[in-house]
């Protein structure tokens, strides 16, 4: 058998030549099928591992060599050879298989590392998201965050979906973006509620409450102090605390009221401008406050002028301390709400003209400041 083999084709030599090849017991195929299948398996593994994306140079080199060898395989598929004859094609296939196997092993390890990273990140972000949700719900500040929690939830659903599909890089990317969204939520909470952790602001609120209590003592009459962070209304008489009642605020109550319809509960010094009994109010009973006061109007004009409040928004009014009309009115729109039994007691103990001071917080370790601290928001100093 001359050269590197004997090419046998049914067209040129016919069946007699095939019989001759078969009669040569030492002849073997020039292209071993197991070598071809091994490289084909490596190619499939590389595709599943997305080698073209994660190791483009290695995969491009592999693919280029494999295409060239495929052409030689097709050209030599009907060639037989003596076992002792050198076979460059088989050597090239075995070498490509070995190189590809090294790439598969490396990418498999990298993929497993990426899977662990995605799994860990998902768990970390979900834990922080649960804490954020729990803490934010505890201080009724969901509206402060707007659509951010919804965006986080959608990103985490994407992270889970990509993880289940084995696309760990995309899963990790979605989880990272969810983490960034949570960080933005913390910044937003700091911007909107940081005053609850501001020592100078709290000292100012404490002084407002102290002045109101002193006024009650000097004038030998009633006074009310409401702490929004504590959700507590305290009634004073002659400068002495005589009762405290739990309260609910507006649906956006922990914010400082700026305009009509924002759901925020105002902060400042007010007075009871009128008392409304049953039949005079949509609620059980109500103490109407003289909101907006001059300070509220000054701030409103300034924010309108600077564009912080839309021109279509009025300053609003009709802020009350009131009871519950029915269970459907379980949350007020910006007022201070008491349960009806407590409202009866308060209603009977105050008169028109009673001072009412509403503050954000009276202690540095208030619930909102503690929540901000738990969420990693730094205490603000001035």
Supply the key terms.
eight-stranded mixed beta sheet; single chain; 11 helices; three-stranded antiparallel beta sheet; L,D-transpeptidase catalytic domain-like; alpha+beta; 3 domains; 382 residues; 13% strand
So what's the overall shape? rod-shaped
Number of domains: 3
What do the pLDDT scores average to? 85
Helix count, DSSP H or I runs of 4 or more residues:
11
For this structure, the CATH topology of the largest domain is L,D-transpeptidase catalytic domain-like
Number of strands: 11
Structural features, described:
The chain has 382 residues and is of the alpha+beta class. It is built from eleven helices and eleven strands. The chain folds into three domains: 6-110; 115-195, no CATH class; 198-364, L,D-transpeptidase catalytic domain-like, CATH 2.40.440.10. An eight-stranded mixed sheet has the order 6-5-4-11-7-8-9-10, sandwiched between helices. Strands 1-3-2 form a three-stranded antiparallel sheet, with no helix packed on it. Helix 2 runs parallel beside helix 5 (88-138), helix 5 (88-138) packs parallel to helix 7 (168-193) and helix 6 runs antiparallel to helix 7 (168-193). The protein is rod-shaped, with a radius of gyration of 39 Å. The N and C termini lie far apart (96 Å).
